[in-house]
Each structure stands twice: as structure tokens, then as C-alpha cells.
Amino acid sequence: MVKKDICLGKVIFITKCMLAAYIMTAGLLLLLAFMLYRFGLSEKVVSLCIIGIYIAVTFAAGLIAGKRAGKRKFLWGLSVGAIYYAILVVVSLIVNRGLQDVAGNMITVFFLCAGSGMLGGMVS
């Protein structure tokens, strides 16, 4: 019974971290869309900003997870970054209806998300 409560608490905590990460992502992407509209940014700049958003958000989520975890902070940050990436891939596959547009950067984005989440966990 006690293990079940501890496990449920961890799942709820990870869910809260993911919700916070995707709220931050939505806000930053809205800001980027406004900047694109207002300043007419190039495609290369927008792509770099999107990658920067992934890094900043997973770093922040790893930081939150590491502060709460107490032990093995880097593993909590790594897991938050990996879960963020997994959700990102699933949504991209649903929206694009295939791997053709997603497959080129999948490995790079995984290492960026997982690495920045782990770094956030280590810093906390």
C-alpha cells in the first residue's frame, strides 16, 4: 500500500512537471509567433528559436524535478527531458501523419531535450 502511494505520487509529480513544461512551451511559441508576425523573421531564425525553446523548457523542467527529488537529481532531469521528447514525437507523428518530416532531427532533438533536462537536474 505504501509503495503504491509513493509510486502514484511520483507519477503525479512527473505529470505536473510535464504540464508546466508544455505550458511554458506554449507561451514561448506564442511569443515566437508574435515576433515572426511583427518582425518577419527568417525560417532559419525561427528554427533556431524553436530549438532554443526546447532546450530552455526541458532545462527548467529538469530544474524543477531535481529540486523536488532530492536524490539522483540528474536521473529525474533526464527522465523529464526524455518524456518531454516522447510526447513531442507522438504529437509530431499525429500532426504530420508519418516520419518523413520528423525523422531527420529526431536523434539530435532527443539528445538536446534529455541532455538539457539532465543538466537542469544537476544544477538544482
- How much helicity do the residues have? over 70%
How many beta-strand runs? 0
Total discrete domains = 1
Order of helices and strands: HHHH
Largest sheet: none
SS class: mainly alpha
Q: N-to-C terminal Cα separation, in Å?
A: 31 Å
Number of helices: 4
Low-confidence stretches: none
Mean pLDDT: 89
Rg over CA atoms, rounded to whole Å, is: 16 Å
Shape: globular
How much of the sequence lies in strands comes to under 5%
Write up this protein.
The chain is mainly alpha-helical. It has one domain. 86% of the residues lie in helices and 0% in strands. The chain has four helices and no strands. It is globular. The chain starts with a helix and ends with a helix.
Keyword list:
124 residues; mainly alpha
TL;DR?
With 124 residues, the protein is mainly alpha-helical.
Question: Topology of this structure?
Answer:
Blueprint: H1 2-39, H2 43-69, H3 73-96, H4 106-123
